[in-house]
Fold this protein.
Amino acid sequence: MSEPSESYDVPEGFLFTKEHEWVSSKKEDGTVLIGITDYAAKMLHDIVYVVLPSEGSTFKAGDVFGQVESVKTVSDIFMPLSGRVLKVNNGLTKTPEVISSSPYSQGWMIALSPTNLAEESKRLLDANDYRRFIEELKNTER
Amino acid sequence: MGMRSHLHAFHEEHGKITEFGGFDMPLWYDGIIEEHHAVRNAAGLFDVSHMGRFRVRGEDATKFLNIIFPSDVEKIRPGRAFYSLILNGAGGIVDDTVTNKISDNEYFMVVNAANREKDLKWLLAKKSESSYSCSVEDESDSTALIALQGPLAVQISRSLCDFDLGTLKRFGFVFCAYAGEKSLVSRTGYTGEDGFEIAVLDSPVDSPDKAMNVWQRILEQGKQFGLKPCGLGARDLLRLEAGMCLYGQDIDETTTPLEASLEGIVDLRKSEPFIGRERLEAQSQEGLRRKRVAFSMIESGIPRHGYQVTIAGSVIGNVTSGTFSPIEKKGIGMAYVPPALSNIGDRFSINLRGVERGAAVSQVPFYDPTRFGYRRKPAS
Protein backbone atom coordinates (compact mmCIF):
# COMPACT_ATOMS: atom_id res chain seq x y z
CA MET A 1 0.00 0.00 0.00
CA SER A 2 1.44 3.39 -0.90
CA GLU A 3 1.70 5.50 2.24
CA PRO A 4 3.22 8.76 1.11
CA SER A 5 1.12 10.89 3.42
CA GLU A 6 1.19 8.47 6.37
CA SER A 7 2.94 10.28 9.20
CA TYR A 8 4.54 8.54 12.12
CA ASP A 9 4.56 9.93 15.61
CA VAL A 10 8.13 10.73 16.69
CA PRO A 11 7.94 12.63 19.99
CA GLU A 12 10.68 14.95 21.26
CA GLY A 13 12.45 14.04 24.45
CA PHE A 14 12.94 10.39 23.49
CA LEU A 15 15.89 8.56 21.97
CA PHE A 16 15.51 5.94 19.25
CA THR A 17 17.23 2.96 17.64
CA LYS A 18 17.34 1.88 14.00
CA GLU A 19 15.44 -1.23 15.10
CA HIS A 20 12.57 1.06 16.10
CA GLU A 21 12.78 0.97 19.87
CA TRP A 22 12.46 4.13 21.96
CA VAL A 23 14.05 5.12 25.27
CA SER A 24 12.45 7.68 27.56
CA SER A 25 14.34 10.37 29.40
CA LYS A 26 15.80 9.27 32.73
CA LYS A 27 13.26 9.21 35.58
CA GLU A 28 13.98 10.49 39.07
CA ASP A 29 14.76 6.99 40.26
CA GLY A 30 17.40 6.61 37.52
CA THR A 31 15.34 4.24 35.37
CA VAL A 32 14.28 4.63 31.76
CA LEU A 33 11.21 3.24 30.00
CA ILE A 34 11.60 1.30 26.75
CA GLY A 35 9.10 0.41 24.06
CA ILE A 36 8.64 0.23 20.29
CA THR A 37 7.89 3.20 18.07
CA ASP A 38 4.71 4.21 16.29
CA TYR A 39 6.45 3.35 13.01
CA ALA A 40 7.18 -0.20 14.20
CA ALA A 41 3.63 -0.66 15.46
CA LYS A 42 2.21 0.56 12.15
CA MET A 43 4.51 -1.71 10.14
CA LEU A 44 3.35 -4.71 12.17
CA HIS A 45 -0.20 -3.59 11.59
CA ASP A 46 -2.13 -5.81 14.02
CA ILE A 47 -0.22 -6.67 17.18
CA VAL A 48 -1.85 -9.70 18.77
CA TYR A 49 0.79 -10.90 21.22
CA VAL A 50 3.92 -9.72 22.99
CA VAL A 51 6.63 -11.73 24.78
CA LEU A 52 8.44 -9.78 27.49
CA PRO A 53 11.39 -10.66 29.76
CA SER A 54 11.07 -11.33 33.48
CA GLU A 55 11.81 -8.74 36.11
CA GLY A 56 15.41 -8.89 37.24
CA SER A 57 16.81 -10.17 33.95
CA THR A 58 19.88 -8.40 32.62
CA PHE A 59 20.80 -7.59 29.03
CA LYS A 60 23.51 -5.95 26.98
CA ALA A 61 22.73 -3.32 24.37
CA GLY A 62 21.74 -5.11 21.15
CA ASP A 63 20.40 -8.24 22.88
CA VAL A 64 16.94 -9.52 21.96
CA PHE A 65 14.74 -8.93 25.00
CA GLY A 66 11.36 -9.98 23.67
CA GLN A 67 9.12 -10.43 20.65
CA VAL A 68 6.10 -8.66 19.31
CA GLU A 69 3.74 -10.75 17.20
CA SER A 70 1.24 -9.89 14.51
CA VAL A 71 -1.09 -12.47 12.96
CA LYS A 72 1.55 -13.51 10.46
CA THR A 73 4.90 -12.51 11.93
CA VAL A 74 7.15 -12.64 14.96
CA SER A 75 9.51 -9.67 15.36
CA ASP A 76 12.39 -9.48 17.81
CA ILE A 77 12.72 -6.44 20.06
CA PHE A 78 16.30 -5.31 20.73
CA MET A 79 17.74 -3.65 23.82
CA PRO A 80 18.83 -0.08 23.14
CA LEU A 81 20.92 -0.08 26.33
CA SER A 82 22.60 -2.44 28.77
CA GLY A 83 21.00 -2.88 32.17
CA ARG A 84 18.62 -4.72 34.49
CA VAL A 85 14.88 -5.01 33.95
CA LEU A 86 13.17 -3.58 37.03
CA LYS A 87 9.54 -3.60 35.89
CA VAL A 88 7.60 -5.26 33.06
CA ASN A 89 4.30 -4.01 31.65
CA ASN A 90 2.53 -7.34 32.04
CA GLY A 91 -0.82 -5.80 31.15
CA LEU A 92 0.35 -5.89 27.53
CA THR A 93 -0.14 -9.66 27.36
CA LYS A 94 -3.87 -9.12 27.84
CA THR A 95 -4.21 -6.01 25.70
CA PRO A 96 -1.37 -5.91 23.16
CA GLU A 97 -3.41 -3.47 21.02
CA VAL A 98 -2.34 -0.74 23.46
CA ILE A 99 1.10 -0.88 21.83
CA SER A 100 -0.50 0.32 18.58
CA SER A 101 -2.85 2.90 20.09
CA SER A 102 -0.39 4.31 22.61
CA PRO A 103 3.18 3.21 21.81
CA TYR A 104 4.97 5.88 23.86
CA SER A 105 2.87 5.94 27.03
CA GLN A 106 0.58 3.03 27.94
CA GLY A 107 2.46 0.83 25.47
CA TRP A 108 5.72 0.99 27.48
CA MET A 109 7.27 -2.46 27.72
CA ILE A 110 9.99 -2.41 30.39
CA ALA A 111 11.49 -0.11 32.98
CA LEU A 112 15.25 -0.50 32.85
CA SER A 113 18.00 0.35 35.30
CA PRO A 114 20.74 1.19 32.79
CA THR A 115 24.38 0.36 33.58
CA ASN A 116 26.06 2.58 31.00
CA LEU A 117 23.53 5.23 30.07
CA ALA A 118 25.87 8.16 29.33
CA GLU A 119 28.09 6.23 26.90
CA GLU A 120 25.44 4.11 25.22
CA SER A 121 22.88 6.87 24.69
CA LYS A 122 25.43 8.59 22.42
CA ARG A 123 24.86 5.75 19.96
CA LEU A 124 21.09 6.33 19.87
CA LEU A 125 19.20 8.64 17.50
CA ASP A 126 17.40 11.77 18.61
CA ALA A 127 13.92 12.56 17.29
CA ASN A 128 15.21 14.44 14.24
CA ASP A 129 17.66 11.72 13.24
CA TYR A 130 15.03 9.01 13.71
CA ARG A 131 12.48 10.99 11.71
CA ARG A 132 14.99 11.28 8.87
CA PHE A 133 15.84 7.58 9.16
CA ILE A 134 12.24 6.43 8.68
CA GLU A 135 11.77 8.93 5.82
CA GLU A 136 14.67 7.23 4.04
CA LEU A 137 13.14 3.82 4.73
CA LYS A 138 9.85 4.91 3.21
CA ASN A 139 11.64 6.20 0.14
CA THR A 140 13.66 3.05 -0.43
CA GLU A 141 10.52 0.94 0.02
CA ARG A 142 8.76 2.55 -2.93
CA MET B 1 8.31 -9.57 -10.03
CA GLY B 2 5.76 -12.35 -9.89
CA MET B 3 2.86 -13.20 -12.18
CA ARG B 4 -0.13 -10.90 -12.00
CA SER B 5 -3.82 -11.67 -11.71
CA HIS B 6 -6.59 -9.97 -13.67
CA LEU B 7 -7.15 -7.57 -10.80
CA HIS B 8 -3.54 -6.56 -10.21
CA ALA B 9 -4.18 -2.88 -10.85
CA PHE B 10 -6.60 -2.79 -7.92
CA HIS B 11 -4.23 -4.67 -5.62
CA GLU B 12 -1.33 -2.43 -6.46
CA GLU B 13 -3.33 0.70 -5.71
CA HIS B 14 -5.04 -0.45 -2.54
CA GLY B 15 -3.16 -3.38 -1.09
CA LYS B 16 0.11 -4.41 0.48
CA ILE B 17 1.58 -6.75 -2.11
CA THR B 18 3.25 -10.04 -1.24
CA GLU B 19 4.47 -13.01 -3.28
CA PHE B 20 2.35 -16.17 -3.19
CA GLY B 21 2.55 -19.21 -5.46
CA GLY B 22 4.57 -17.21 -7.96
CA PHE B 23 2.02 -14.38 -8.00
CA ASP B 24 2.07 -10.82 -6.66
CA MET B 25 -1.03 -10.78 -4.47
CA PRO B 26 -2.41 -8.53 -1.71
CA LEU B 27 -1.55 -9.61 1.82
CA TRP B 28 -4.08 -7.09 3.09
CA TYR B 29 -5.74 -3.82 2.12
CA ASP B 30 -6.72 -2.33 5.48
CA GLY B 31 -5.44 -5.02 7.80
CA ILE B 32 -5.87 -8.71 8.57
CA ILE B 33 -7.97 -8.29 11.72
CA GLU B 34 -10.33 -5.75 10.12
CA GLU B 35 -10.79 -7.92 7.05
CA HIS B 36 -11.36 -11.04 9.18
CA HIS B 37 -14.00 -9.12 11.12
CA ALA B 38 -15.74 -8.08 7.89
CA VAL B 39 -15.98 -11.66 6.59
CA ARG B 40 -17.32 -13.09 9.85
CA ASN B 41 -19.83 -10.28 10.39
CA ALA B 42 -20.77 -8.97 6.95
CA ALA B 43 -18.81 -10.00 3.86
CA GLY B 44 -15.40 -9.93 2.25
CA LEU B 45 -14.21 -10.07 -1.36
CA PHE B 46 -11.14 -12.07 -2.39
CA ASP B 47 -9.36 -12.19 -5.73
CA VAL B 48 -8.36 -15.83 -6.10
CA SER B 49 -7.61 -15.72 -9.83
CA HIS B 50 -4.07 -16.88 -9.12
CA MET B 51 -5.49 -20.36 -8.48
CA GLY B 52 -5.45 -22.82 -11.37
CA ARG B 53 -8.56 -23.75 -13.32
CA PHE B 54 -8.76 -26.78 -15.62
CA ARG B 55 -11.56 -28.17 -17.74
CA VAL B 56 -11.69 -31.94 -18.10
CA ARG B 57 -13.96 -32.94 -20.98
CA GLY B 58 -14.80 -36.04 -22.98
CA GLU B 59 -16.65 -39.33 -22.92
CA ASP B 60 -14.20 -40.83 -20.39
CA ALA B 61 -13.98 -37.74 -18.17
CA THR B 62 -15.63 -39.51 -15.22
CA LYS B 63 -13.63 -42.72 -15.66
CA PHE B 64 -10.42 -40.67 -15.83
CA LEU B 65 -11.14 -38.59 -12.73
CA ASN B 66 -12.14 -41.76 -10.90
CA ILE B 67 -8.53 -42.86 -11.28
CA ILE B 68 -7.14 -39.46 -10.30
CA PHE B 69 -9.31 -38.99 -7.20
CA PRO B 70 -9.97 -41.45 -4.35
CA SER B 71 -13.57 -40.16 -4.21
CA ASP B 72 -16.30 -41.93 -6.16
CA VAL B 73 -16.74 -39.33 -8.87
CA GLU B 74 -19.41 -41.32 -10.68
CA LYS B 75 -21.76 -41.08 -7.71
CA ILE B 76 -21.59 -37.28 -7.63
CA ARG B 77 -24.59 -35.59 -9.23
CA PRO B 78 -24.09 -32.99 -12.00
CA GLY B 79 -24.52 -29.50 -10.60
CA ARG B 80 -22.48 -30.38 -7.49
CA ALA B 81 -18.98 -29.28 -6.59
CA PHE B 82 -16.85 -31.59 -4.48
CA TYR B 83 -13.64 -31.33 -2.47
CA SER B 84 -11.12 -34.04 -3.26
CA LEU B 85 -7.41 -34.84 -3.44
CA ILE B 86 -5.13 -35.72 -6.34
CA LEU B 87 -2.97 -38.59 -5.03
CA ASN B 88 0.45 -39.85 -6.08
CA GLY B 89 1.46 -43.51 -6.31
CA ALA B 90 2.51 -43.59 -2.66
CA GLY B 91 -0.89 -42.31 -1.53
CA GLY B 92 0.53 -38.86 -0.82
CA ILE B 93 -1.27 -35.69 -1.81
CA VAL B 94 -0.32 -33.96 -5.05
CA ASP B 95 -2.93 -31.24 -4.52
CA ASP B 96 -6.33 -30.59 -2.98
CA THR B 97 -9.03 -29.27 -5.27
CA VAL B 98 -12.64 -28.27 -5.55
CA THR B 99 -14.12 -29.67 -8.76
CA ASN B 100 -17.45 -28.75 -10.32
CA LYS B 101 -19.21 -31.66 -12.05
CA ILE B 102 -20.97 -30.06 -14.98
CA SER B 103 -22.00 -33.40 -16.47
CA ASP B 104 -20.67 -36.95 -16.68
CA ASN B 105 -18.51 -35.66 -19.54
CA GLU B 106 -17.39 -32.30 -18.21
CA TYR B 107 -15.69 -31.04 -15.06
CA PHE B 108 -14.27 -27.67 -14.00
CA MET B 109 -11.42 -28.09 -11.49
CA VAL B 110 -9.96 -25.41 -9.24
CA VAL B 111 -6.44 -26.11 -7.94
CA ASN B 112 -3.84 -24.30 -5.82
CA ALA B 113 -1.87 -21.49 -7.45
CA ALA B 114 1.51 -22.95 -6.53
CA ASN B 115 0.58 -26.28 -8.17
CA ARG B 116 -0.77 -25.05 -11.51
CA GLU B 117 2.10 -26.44 -13.55
CA LYS B 118 2.58 -29.56 -11.46
CA ASP B 119 -1.09 -30.55 -11.55
CA LEU B 120 -1.48 -29.95 -15.28
CA LYS B 121 1.63 -32.02 -16.01
CA TRP B 122 0.35 -34.76 -13.73
CA LEU B 123 -3.11 -34.89 -15.27
CA LEU B 124 -1.79 -34.87 -18.83
CA ALA B 125 0.76 -37.59 -18.01
CA LYS B 126 -1.82 -39.84 -16.35
CA LYS B 127 -4.19 -39.32 -19.25
CA SER B 128 -1.61 -40.28 -21.86
CA GLU B 129 -0.53 -43.30 -19.79
CA SER B 130 -4.13 -44.47 -19.89
CA SER B 131 -6.38 -45.08 -22.85
CA TYR B 132 -9.08 -42.70 -21.69
CA SER B 133 -10.74 -40.46 -24.21
CA CYS B 134 -10.91 -36.97 -22.73
CA SER B 135 -9.07 -33.66 -22.79
CA VAL B 136 -7.56 -31.54 -20.03
CA GLU B 137 -7.49 -27.83 -20.85
CA ASP B 138 -5.86 -25.13 -18.81
CA GLU B 139 -8.36 -22.29 -18.43
CA SER B 140 -6.43 -20.47 -15.69
CA ASP B 141 -5.52 -17.55 -17.93
CA SER B 142 -8.86 -17.33 -19.73
CA THR B 143 -11.06 -17.18 -16.62
CA ALA B 144 -10.96 -15.20 -13.37
CA LEU B 145 -12.01 -16.34 -9.90
CA ILE B 146 -13.49 -14.05 -7.25
CA ALA B 147 -14.71 -15.23 -3.84
CA LEU B 148 -17.49 -13.38 -2.01
CA GLN B 149 -17.65 -14.74 1.54
CA GLY B 150 -19.72 -13.88 4.61
CA PRO B 151 -23.26 -14.00 6.03
CA LEU B 152 -24.39 -11.17 3.73
CA ALA B 153 -23.08 -12.74 0.50
CA VAL B 154 -26.55 -13.79 -0.66
CA GLN B 155 -28.01 -10.38 0.06
CA ILE B 156 -25.20 -8.59 -1.76
CA SER B 157 -25.62 -10.88 -4.78
CA ARG B 158 -29.35 -10.36 -5.01
CA SER B 159 -29.32 -7.50 -7.50
CA LEU B 160 -26.14 -8.67 -9.24
CA CYS B 161 -27.11 -12.14 -10.45
CA ASP B 162 -29.84 -13.26 -12.82
CA PHE B 163 -30.13 -16.46 -10.74
CA ASP B 164 -31.46 -16.47 -7.19
CA LEU B 165 -28.25 -17.66 -5.52
CA GLY B 166 -30.03 -17.99 -2.18
CA THR B 167 -31.70 -21.11 -3.57
CA LEU B 168 -28.38 -22.76 -4.42
CA LYS B 169 -27.49 -25.61 -2.05
CA ARG B 170 -24.14 -25.55 -0.29
CA PHE B 171 -21.59 -27.02 -2.76
CA GLY B 172 -24.06 -26.57 -5.59
CA PHE B 173 -23.09 -24.49 -8.61
CA VAL B 174 -24.83 -22.85 -11.53
CA PHE B 175 -24.01 -21.09 -14.78
CA CYS B 176 -25.42 -17.58 -14.70
CA ALA B 177 -24.74 -13.93 -15.43
CA TYR B 178 -23.04 -12.29 -12.45
CA ALA B 179 -22.82 -8.49 -12.80
CA GLY B 180 -23.80 -9.21 -16.40
CA GLU B 181 -20.78 -11.47 -17.03
CA LYS B 182 -21.12 -15.15 -17.91
CA SER B 183 -19.92 -17.06 -14.85
CA LEU B 184 -19.86 -20.41 -13.08
CA VAL B 185 -20.92 -19.62 -9.50
CA SER B 186 -20.53 -22.22 -6.75
CA ARG B 187 -21.71 -21.97 -3.17
CA THR B 188 -18.28 -22.89 -1.83
CA GLY B 189 -15.41 -21.16 -0.11
CA TYR B 190 -12.32 -21.25 2.05
CA THR B 191 -13.55 -19.32 5.07
CA GLY B 192 -16.21 -21.48 6.72
CA GLU B 193 -18.80 -18.78 6.01
CA ASP B 194 -21.63 -18.82 3.48
CA GLY B 195 -20.59 -17.39 0.16
CA PHE B 196 -19.78 -17.91 -3.47
CA GLU B 197 -16.80 -18.51 -5.71
CA ILE B 198 -17.47 -16.76 -9.00
CA ALA B 199 -15.53 -18.05 -12.00
CA VAL B 200 -15.82 -15.30 -14.61
CA LEU B 201 -15.66 -17.06 -17.98
CA ASP B 202 -14.13 -15.73 -21.20
CA SER B 203 -12.00 -13.38 -19.14
CA PRO B 204 -8.38 -13.37 -20.31
CA VAL B 205 -5.79 -12.30 -17.74
CA ASP B 206 -4.32 -9.69 -20.09
CA SER B 207 -7.72 -8.27 -20.99
CA PRO B 208 -9.33 -8.17 -17.58
CA ASP B 209 -12.27 -5.80 -18.00
CA LYS B 210 -14.92 -8.46 -17.35
CA ALA B 211 -13.19 -9.54 -14.13
CA MET B 212 -12.71 -5.91 -13.09
CA ASN B 213 -16.37 -5.22 -13.78
CA VAL B 214 -17.53 -8.04 -11.52
CA TRP B 215 -15.05 -6.99 -8.81
CA GLN B 216 -16.03 -3.32 -8.85
CA ARG B 217 -19.78 -3.99 -9.05
CA ILE B 218 -19.62 -6.25 -5.99
CA LEU B 219 -17.57 -3.68 -4.07
CA GLU B 220 -20.06 -0.93 -4.94
CA GLN B 221 -23.11 -3.00 -4.12
CA GLY B 222 -21.55 -4.45 -0.97
CA LYS B 223 -20.30 -1.20 0.53
CA GLN B 224 -23.62 -0.44 2.24
CA PHE B 225 -23.52 -3.89 3.83
CA GLY B 226 -20.01 -3.49 5.19
CA LEU B 227 -18.25 -5.52 2.45
CA LYS B 228 -14.46 -5.11 2.37
CA PRO B 229 -11.86 -6.35 -0.10
CA CYS B 230 -9.70 -8.92 1.71
CA GLY B 231 -6.18 -10.21 1.19
CA LEU B 232 -4.33 -13.48 1.66
CA GLY B 233 -3.53 -12.73 5.31
CA ALA B 234 -7.21 -12.72 6.25
CA ARG B 235 -7.79 -15.71 3.95
CA ASP B 236 -5.25 -17.80 5.83
CA LEU B 237 -6.62 -16.79 9.24
CA LEU B 238 -10.21 -17.54 8.22
CA ARG B 239 -9.50 -20.96 6.72
CA LEU B 240 -7.53 -22.03 9.79
CA GLU B 241 -10.33 -20.95 12.14
CA ALA B 242 -12.68 -23.00 9.95
CA GLY B 243 -10.38 -26.03 10.24
CA MET B 244 -9.40 -26.18 6.57
CA CYS B 245 -6.03 -27.38 5.31
CA LEU B 246 -3.47 -25.36 3.40
CA TYR B 247 -1.54 -27.33 0.78
CA GLY B 248 2.18 -27.12 1.30
CA GLN B 249 1.75 -26.66 5.06
CA ASP B 250 -0.84 -29.13 6.41
CA ILE B 251 -0.86 -31.54 3.48
CA ASP B 252 1.76 -32.39 0.86
CA GLU B 253 3.19 -35.22 -1.21
CA THR B 254 4.33 -37.04 1.94
CA THR B 255 0.97 -37.02 3.75
CA THR B 256 -1.77 -39.52 2.90
CA PRO B 257 -5.45 -38.61 3.30
CA LEU B 258 -5.64 -41.05 6.21
CA GLU B 259 -2.79 -39.32 8.05
CA ALA B 260 -4.29 -35.93 7.16
CA SER B 261 -7.65 -36.85 8.71
CA LEU B 262 -9.29 -36.51 5.28
CA GLU B 263 -10.35 -40.17 5.12
CA GLY B 264 -13.91 -38.97 4.43
CA ILE B 265 -13.07 -38.32 0.79
CA VAL B 266 -11.58 -41.78 0.25
CA ASP B 267 -14.06 -44.36 -1.00
CA LEU B 268 -12.41 -47.77 -0.92
CA ARG B 269 -15.69 -49.40 -1.91
CA LYS B 270 -15.40 -48.06 -5.45
CA SER B 271 -13.96 -50.61 -7.84
CA GLU B 272 -11.54 -48.35 -9.72
CA PRO B 273 -7.81 -48.88 -9.09
CA PHE B 274 -7.36 -45.18 -8.34
CA ILE B 275 -3.79 -43.90 -8.02
CA GLY B 276 -2.50 -44.50 -4.50
CA ARG B 277 -5.17 -47.12 -3.70
CA GLU B 278 -2.77 -49.92 -2.79
CA ARG B 279 -0.87 -47.72 -0.35
CA LEU B 280 -4.05 -46.50 1.33
CA GLU B 281 -5.36 -50.02 1.70
CA ALA B 282 -2.05 -51.13 3.18
CA GLN B 283 -2.02 -48.15 5.53
CA SER B 284 -5.52 -48.86 6.83
CA GLN B 285 -4.35 -52.39 7.66
CA GLU B 286 -1.02 -51.37 9.24
CA GLY B 287 -2.37 -48.44 11.19
CA LEU B 288 -1.13 -44.85 11.13
CA ARG B 289 2.04 -43.51 12.65
CA ARG B 290 0.83 -39.93 12.74
CA LYS B 291 -2.42 -38.04 12.46
CA ARG B 292 -3.30 -34.42 11.72
CA VAL B 293 -5.17 -32.70 14.53
CA ALA B 294 -6.53 -29.24 15.19
CA PHE B 295 -5.41 -27.82 18.54
CA SER B 296 -5.78 -24.68 20.58
CA MET B 297 -3.44 -23.21 23.15
CA ILE B 298 -4.43 -23.63 26.78
CA GLU B 299 -1.61 -21.36 27.91
CA SER B 300 -0.68 -18.11 26.22
CA GLY B 301 1.35 -17.93 23.05
CA ILE B 302 0.93 -18.35 19.31
CA PRO B 303 1.91 -21.62 17.59
CA ARG B 304 3.56 -21.31 14.17
CA HIS B 305 4.47 -23.59 11.27
CA GLY B 306 7.51 -25.66 12.13
CA TYR B 307 7.26 -25.47 15.92
CA GLN B 308 7.63 -28.75 17.77
CA VAL B 309 4.91 -30.64 19.62
CA THR B 310 6.30 -32.07 22.85
CA ILE B 311 5.39 -34.15 25.88
CA ALA B 312 7.61 -33.94 28.95
CA GLY B 313 10.26 -32.25 26.84
CA SER B 314 10.35 -34.97 24.14
CA VAL B 315 9.45 -34.07 20.58
CA ILE B 316 6.43 -36.09 19.42
CA GLY B 317 5.14 -34.09 16.48
CA ASN B 318 5.22 -30.85 14.50
CA VAL B 319 3.00 -27.82 13.99
CA THR B 320 1.99 -27.35 10.35
CA SER B 321 -0.16 -24.22 10.70
CA GLY B 322 -0.62 -21.74 13.50
CA THR B 323 -2.11 -18.32 14.15
CA PHE B 324 -3.99 -16.17 16.64
CA SER B 325 -7.79 -16.42 16.45
CA PRO B 326 -9.44 -13.06 17.08
CA ILE B 327 -12.73 -14.86 17.83
CA GLU B 328 -11.37 -17.36 20.32
CA LYS B 329 -8.68 -14.89 21.49
CA LYS B 330 -6.04 -17.58 21.66
CA GLY B 331 -3.47 -19.38 19.57
CA ILE B 332 -4.83 -22.12 17.31
CA GLY B 333 -3.19 -24.50 14.88
CA MET B 334 -2.81 -27.85 13.19
CA ALA B 335 -0.18 -30.45 13.91
CA TYR B 336 0.77 -34.03 13.21
CA VAL B 337 0.88 -36.11 16.38
CA PRO B 338 0.86 -39.82 17.28
CA PRO B 339 -2.66 -41.26 16.72
CA ALA B 340 -2.94 -42.00 20.45
CA LEU B 341 -2.97 -38.22 21.05
CA SER B 342 -5.43 -37.34 18.29
CA ASN B 343 -8.65 -37.35 20.33
CA ILE B 344 -10.45 -34.15 21.24
CA GLY B 345 -9.20 -32.99 24.61
CA ASP B 346 -5.85 -34.80 24.41
CA ARG B 347 -3.06 -32.60 25.71
CA PHE B 348 0.50 -31.86 24.74
CA SER B 349 2.86 -28.90 24.70
CA ILE B 350 4.06 -26.66 21.93
CA ASN B 351 7.65 -25.43 21.98
CA LEU B 352 7.26 -21.70 21.39
CA ARG B 353 10.80 -20.64 20.54
CA GLY B 354 12.25 -22.34 23.61
CA VAL B 355 9.28 -22.09 25.96
CA GLU B 356 6.88 -25.04 26.39
CA ARG B 357 3.22 -24.05 26.56
CA GLY B 358 0.14 -26.26 26.94
CA ALA B 359 -2.30 -27.08 24.13
CA ALA B 360 -5.25 -29.44 23.60
CA VAL B 361 -6.77 -31.17 20.59
CA SER B 362 -9.79 -29.20 19.48
CA GLN B 363 -12.91 -29.64 17.40
CA VAL B 364 -13.25 -27.76 14.13
CA PRO B 365 -14.37 -25.22 13.34
CA PHE B 366 -12.60 -23.49 16.21
CA TYR B 367 -15.42 -20.96 16.56
CA ASP B 368 -18.93 -21.69 17.85
CA PRO B 369 -20.79 -22.85 14.68
CA THR B 370 -24.10 -21.55 16.01
CA ARG B 371 -22.65 -18.02 16.07
CA PHE B 372 -20.18 -18.01 13.14
CA GLY B 373 -19.86 -19.90 9.89
CA TYR B 374 -22.41 -20.94 7.31
CA ARG B 375 -24.41 -23.00 9.81
CA ARG B 376 -24.87 -20.11 12.22
CA LYS B 377 -28.29 -19.56 13.74
CA PRO B 378 -29.97 -16.62 12.00
CA ALA B 379 -30.15 -13.48 14.13
CA SER B 380 -33.50 -13.33 15.88
Summary: Chain B has a mean pLDDT of 97. The first helix of chain B runs from residue 8 to 14. The CA atoms of residues 70 and 283 of chain B lie 14 Å apart.
